[in-house]
Amino acid sequence: MAKKLLLLVMVGLVAFAGVAYGAKMKKKDAEAQLETCNIREAAAEEGIVNVEPKVNALKDEVSTLDVRIADLEARLAELEAQPRYWGRYSVKPGDYLYKIAADEYVYNDGSKWPVIYEANNDLISDPNLIYPGWVLFIPGVNEWKVKSGNWLWKIANSVAVYGDGSKWPAIYEANKDQVNDPDLIYPNQVFVIPR
Predict the structure, then answer these.
(1) CA of 115: how far to CAs of 38, 110, 121, 153, in Å?
(2) Long-range pairs of 170-176 with CB within 8 A, sequence gap ≥ 24
(3) Residue 184 backbone dihedrals phi, psi, to 5 degrees
(4) Which long-range CB contacts under 8 A does 24-33 form with residues at least 24 apart?
(5) What is the pTM assigned to this prediction?
(6) 72-99 residue pLDDT tens
(7) How far is CA 98 from CA 73, 111, 142, 155, in A?
(8) How far apart are CA 26 and CA 17, in angstroms?
């Protein structure tokens, strides 16, 4: 019985030593893991500090873009409220924007070339470089200043007006206060172009 008791005490001491050793190892493992977590936390905080200026710059850029979007939406609403007409013009060899605008069947006024450029700036990066075969949008006009050689059919046939000479009566009807006889119009008269 004493041998059993002694054996039992010895087994208990070995078990206690194992538990104590295991606890000591667990404490070391826990301390190592805590140190690893502290290192990761410091690295994460440093990363946040480094990224914060970039985030603020992006927020500023988003704010700027929001303002630009609001401006574009307002401009779009303004344009949608206006009567719209767009003609098309196929660029020929030797054409340039001033020449196209000056064409008697476009605007009959070369100084209006920026209107064509603005309407086609997604295609035209340099207003001095346009190429044959390009099809340009020609914004319609709401009024037309008569030049020598104009008659109502010719004005109506202009790409910037209707692109169809047979619609000349619409111009005549809208401008009866200035035109008594549709066959008699005069340079410098300014006609309303109804849409």
Answers:
(1) 64, 10, 10, 23
(2) 170/194, 171/144
(3) -125, 100
(4) none
(5) 0.50
(6) 888 777 766 655 677 889 999 999 999 9
(7) 30, 7, 20, 19
(8) 14
